[in-house]
Amino acid sequence: MVRMLLILVMLLAGCAEVSPRKPIVELPDAANLLREGGKAYAEGNCKVAIEKYLQLIEQVPDDVDSMLKIAQCTYREGDATGAMAQYQRILRISPSLRPAHYNLLYLQLNALVATSKGVIENVPPETDDEVALVELATQIMAAVTELVDDQRARRQVSDAPP
After folding, report:
1. Which residue among 54, 57, 102, 159 is least packed, with the fewest CB closer than 10 Å?
2. Helical spans, DSSP H, in 1-127
3. Residue 17 pLDDT class (50, 70, 90 cuts)
4. Sequence spans of domains, the chain
5. For residue 159, what pLDDT is reported?
6. How confident is residue 28, by pLDDT bands cut at 50, 70 and 90?
7. How far is the C-alpha of 111 from the C-alpha of 117, rounded, in Å?
8. Could you tell me the pTM of the whole model?
9. CB within 8 A of 88, min separation 6: which ones?
């Protein structure tokens, strides 16, 4: 009887699957892309960083950290509109992601200030509604300017030697 059980166990062991299964995501490839993208990002090489992070997102589509790096690099490369679109994509995936909200807000405020300046400098208001919009835009620009100046002053104080 014991001999019969041993033979049965050996036969069943021979039926077990021994071929390795391919993982859904090639982790070594994803890890390499993350490492290479991070290195390029840290060195300020945004073109390479964007390329690596895009390849990584093909493997890990909801990787919001890589998407944030792409958005930041897109902005650094001078494409604020592209960066805003990237932040909006991130927020569709992760609606409460703080850096995406605040970076998008920053870019939108800058766009609002630029648009407002263009209107104020080039197109004098003619109607009561236009006058009200220009007054509102002027107040917003003053508030944004004050906020930016305060942040710069705080950074200078915190960067000052003791």
Report:
1. 159
2. 2-15, 27-42, 46-59, 64-76, 80-93, 98-122
3. very low
4. 27-148
5. 53
6. low
7. 10
8. 0.70
9. 104
